[in-house]
Design goal:
Length: about 525
Amino acid sequence: MSEVINQESDKSTSVLKAAWMIALVTIVSKLIGFIRDIIIANYYGASLVSDAYYYAYQIPSLSLILLGGVGGPFHSATVAIFSKLIPSLKEKPVPNVNKLYSTFMTATILFFLVLSVIMYLYPRQIMGLIISSGSAEMINLAAVHLKIMTPLLIIGGIVGIYYGILIIYKQFMLPNLSPIIMSLAIIGVVVAVPSDQKGYALAWATTIGAVLQLVIQYPNIRKLGYKFRPNFEFVNNPHFKEIGELLFPAVLSSTVGQVHIYVDMFFTSSISEGAWTAIGYANRVFQFPVGILVTAFLVPLFPIFARLVADNDHEGIRNYFNKGVGVLFFGAIPIIIGILVVGLDAVKLIFEHGVFDENATFMVTEALWFLSVSIIPYVFRDSITRVFYSFNDSATPFTVAFSSIVLKVFLNWILISKMHFGIGGITLSTSLVTLFNACILGYFITRKIKMNYSSLFKNLGKMIVAGIITGIVCYAVALGFDGVLNLPKIPFETLKITIVGIVCLVVYIPLNLLFKMEYAGELFDRLRAKLRRV
């Protein structure tokens, strides 16, 4: 019995170590991404050109980020299937595993090649459908951007498989570092290209960055022993069939998520020039802390979920799910407080330079405020989806996502067309749809495994009470700060955000300890034990 407990403790420690490592790498990646966004904002502002680029980028990003990114269907399918077939991570893959890898790669390349050809031949028709309310000039600009970024479709699927294999072998660094390549490529091209030639610079830079992402992953895949040989044995291949059964609904689910974005693009194009750019920047600010949080914990947890399902260890799944999601909730609430209290200051500090003016700043902040309320359901939805994937079930997440399209259209119509909420209406509808998906998925998983939600949400209740008290204190500090100091913008905003952040942690953490919120206590005990060893 003690041996089992020690193994569980070792696993928890391993997950936490991996989470901290991934968090640090992701922070570096996100910071460089922010520098990229600051430079783009400085040169383009919230303008017609930036709108055209971001509209066009939504289609290839479906492959590179949603399907092929860390946590996407190709990464998830690779982890879910290959982690059960690899007997030892210290040895080269056996022939049948390598053959399955080649079959999966062949099918992926063929699938995305067909989509790439369609995108390359009909870019204006595609963009005209998506942004039908936009001007002819915007549609034409977006069409050229889309044509330039065609290669991203094929690259995204391949990179997703690479990510999955590397993470199975506990090589967490490279998958989380590779987005830096994309950011550096965009920064380099945008800065280097003369002002009168910047029209399509963003699209070319994005394509170059995607190619470099692929190139940087390849040597490690070869080193692990995986060699691609075109293989067309798609029929009578049970493991490839498993991949297909998991991947196809997951791809459709992510595609449905992209349909939500296209719905937003349709309604946003009727609001104002620069609105879609503002929503894009709001999402980037939102994803900086939330992406770090979710990536850090779910990347190392997902292979554990897959192995626990293979071992039929339901108690282990419940324990790891509650601990993982509990820690995510614990970190999410201070993020919400920070966005609501100093979100405007953060946007000013990051983006309000060059041609990015006060109006653009407010548009981004308005979108961000309404988006912040989705953080709690967002982390729950992403976590529960990994449990479904571990059970080789991607059909249920797809069905739930598909059913929410009608809800998304209805909410956008009510909030934008009828109530005239503007940009805030777009992100508010996103938050409500995220809550809907989280609730439905949380219910349906109980058909596979009995979850222990009472403990999880009891702790969440304590966190929310602590968060409300902390938010009031932070708001009072922010108001006092505004009335006392009169400094230039950059030092003022930096100092204000820093002080409010410190106050938030100083109030929030002790309150959770006082309320005996178990995840705070466990993290505090681990930190204290580590400090004693030092």
